[in-house]
Structures are given as C-alpha cells and as structure tokens.
Design goal:
With 168 residues, this protein is mostly helical. It has one domain (27-166). 60% of the residues lie in helices and 0% in strands. The protein is built from 11 helices and no strands. It has helices at 3-15, 19-24, 27-32, 52-60, 66-76, 81-91, 94-98, 107-118, 121-132, 136-146, 162-166. It is globular, with a radius of gyration of 16 Å.
Length: 168
C-alpha cells in the first residue's frame, strides 16, 4: 500500500467509526483527525504555544492542521473569554460552516458543542450567537444531536482542560 492508500484507509476507518468509538478517542486523537489532502504529512505545530491571534490566523488561512487550531481555541474558551469570542467568529464563516467532521455535522456544530462544554457565561453566549445565525432546519438537527429542546437547555459534559487541571 502506498502513502495515499494508507491515508485513504484512515479516512474510511474514521468515517465508519461508531459514535461510541469516537467518544472513546482521546481529545488529542480527535484533534489529529485532519481531512485536507496532504496536510497529514506536515508536522503539527505546538498550538498551545500560539497566541489567540496566531491560532485565528492559522485557521483562517486553512494552514495544515487548521482544525486543531480551532480546537485549541475551543479548549481555551473554558478559561479565556477572548478565545471564546474568536472561535465564535470563526464558526460564523463559510470555512467552518462547510467543513464536515462527520458527513452530517459541520465544524460550526463542533464549536457550538465545545463552547457549551466550556460552560462559562461568555462561551455559552457565543454558542447561542452562532446557533442563531444558522438556518432553522439545521438548528433542529443540532438540537437533536445535542438531545435538547432549546439551545439554552443544552448541556454537554464538562471536561477540564490541562490548563484548568494544573490550576494555572
């Protein structure tokens, strides 16, 4: 099997993965899933060392591993309101609206989910703001996915980030 065949097999394996298998993956493994062709061969930067502005620019330019930059911003949203506002701005762009992490869910959905998981007043407000910019049919799909009757009632299990666990 050549490199391209191996990459294609990884994508196929990921797409055939059950929700339970996905949930069992570590956060780092989830962040490492990058679909743009050729990006998997570029070393992943240490996103924790980048500023919010640098992460935003990395994502907007769709640089290799740009999805991991978005997830780094969602991680920081739990303790940094500027990160929550920045990633909310990204989620309103076609870039995140059109990028699918499953065949049916967009990166914007993932951002809403992670902002709800952060569960700070600013992060939740940003999640509501993104949600309200999405058409009604897609809103219904998101609420079904979140198992909630309204975005304000949506609860996502909170996972502490490394930063929160270390007490910094």
């Amino acid at each position: 099997m050549n490199d391209d065949d191996l990459v294609m097999q990884e994508v196929i394996d990921f797409l055939e993965m059950s929700d339970a298998e996905f949930e069992a993956m570590s956060l780092d493994d989830r962040k490492a899933v990058v679909f743009p062709e050729g990006h998997e061969r570029v070393p992943k930067p240490d996103f924790r060392a980048l500023s919010i502005v640098e992460l935003d620019a990395h994502a907007r330019r769709r640089e290799p591993h740009w999805i991991a930059a978005v997830y780094e911003l969602t991680d920081r949203a739990a303790y940094d309101d500027a990160a929550a506002r920045t990633v909310a701005g990204l989620a309103k762009l076609p870039l995140l609206r059109e990028e699918r992490i499953y065949h049916w869910a967009s990166m914007a959905w993932a951002v809403i989910n992670e902002l709800l998981r952060a569960d700070t007043p600013v992060a939740r407000s940003c999640a509501y703001e993104i949600f309200n910019t999405i058409d009604e049919a897609e809103q219904a799909d998101i609420l079904f996915w979140l198992k909630a009757s309204s975005i304000e009632l949506a609860r996502v299990e909170k996972v502490l980030s490394d930063k929160q666990n270390s007490g910094d």
